[in-house]
Write a structure and sequence with these properties.
2 helices
């Protein structure tokens, strides 16, 4: 079961890392070019992606804990 979870989790993890990289890159470009709209949008996008990742980790932890009790 642990191996199956690792196989299912690798693609979302790669996508999450990609979103973080794009967000950080946009943030730096916005700071470099003094574009407030880019800084705000990159910050919001990064915050949303980190929040969604946190919710997914919490849901997987909760489901794994419930499955181990059964």
């Amino acid at each position: 079961m642990e191996q199956q979870f690792k196989k299912r989790a690798i693609i979302p993890f790669i996508i999450f890392i990609g979103f973080i990289v794009v967000s950080i890159n946009s943030l730096f470009k916005g700071i470099e070019h003094h574009e407030t709209w880019r800084i705000v949008s990159a910050s919001i996008g990064g915050f949303i992606s980190v929040g969604m990742a946190g919710l997914l980790v919490y849901a997987n932890y909760k489901n794994g804990k419930a499955a181990s009790k059964a």
